[in-house]
Amino acid sequence: MSALLPHMKRSRAITTARLARAQPGQHDVGPAVETVMGIPRGAAQHPRVAGMLTTFTVDLHKFAPRSIHTRTFEQHQREAVT
Predict the structure, then answer these.
(1) Which residues of 49-76 are buried (b: 16+ CB within 10 A; e: fewer)?
(2) How far is 58 from 48, CA to CA, in rounded Å?
(3) Could you give the CA distance from residue 60 to residue 42 in angstroms, rounded to a whole number?
(4) What is the pTM of this model?
(5) Which tens digits make up the pLDDT trace of 69-81?
(6) Looking at residue 38, what DSSP letter applies?
(7) Measured on CA atoms in the order 74, 79, 81, 82, is the torsion positive or negative?
(8) Do 29 and 20 touch, CB atoms closer than 8 A?
(9) For the segment 30-54, what is each residue's pLDDT rounded down to a tens digit?
């Protein structure tokens, strides 16, 4: 991943975010969280990727509001901003 050009990293992050967004709708919350947590923090700061992560978070809370996976993701997000 580190050898990819900046636009390629962003494209990979966008594709990964799309995959993660599709998984909760298929009741695959655990794999969705694992997928989305694989997006590098630097790529997650791109406005398009950040927007997709926001939508993922909303969907995750809709499909599994009390899931351990949701709590894991929330913790991951808190650590990312500190």
Answers:
(1) beebbeebeebbeebbeebebbeebeee
(2) 16
(3) 22
(4) 0.81
(5) 999 999 998 887 7
(6) T
(7) positive
(8) no
(9) 999 999 999 988 888 889 999 999 9
